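Attaching the record inline, Q. Sequence:
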Amino acid sequence: METAHDLSPLGLFLAADWVVRAVMLMLVVASVAVWALALDRALRFRRLARDAQALRRFAEDGSPPASENAWAEVLVAAEQAAREVTGESPGDRRHHISGAARLAVTERTAMARRGLPMLASIASTAPFIGLFGTVWGIMNAFTAIAASGNTSLSAVAPGIAEALFATALGLVAAIPAALAFNRLSAMLGEARGAANGAAERLARRLGLAGSGRARMAAE
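Structure, as predicted:
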């Protein structure tokens, strides 16, 4: 009578050799990291978009943004640039302020983008890591079959199932990582576009305000 094999995920993990176990653990950790990173960045990027709208309202009607606005560096850079070019023409003032504000947007976006390359790396490598575990497991399964001489389906199935489970884990990590990377990249791009629009309006507002003060001083 042949011994029944445990084909549950835990049973497949415990029955695998140390190489396949290491691959499985690596992919489980990668999957957990994908979800944690995706949720964290989604919340951050949503806040970036919301705060960019607040900065735009400030540039349009003077409604002060919250002190903890995620794009506060943009406002600081624009105001500092405005102070540096008080006596220049409105066009030059606006160009200088716009450049400083856009640079601050770029720097803030680069900081926010941290973590996205990890998602891209997991999306591209996890299937191959799982495939390595599958190949290694199938190799061990056929080696054991050759040594025992038992070629029945009940003898072959457990080893093959252990190997294919590694591929499944690779896809479980890779598919959410690819979807999250694409969606988060789009969210960050939208937030950056909104921030750049706010920066242009801020440059126009500060440029006109500075030229008005300059005319008053000249009079």
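DSSP finds six helices and no strands in the chain. Helices lie at 9-15, 18-61, 72-84, 90-112, 116-148, 153-218.

More tomorrow.
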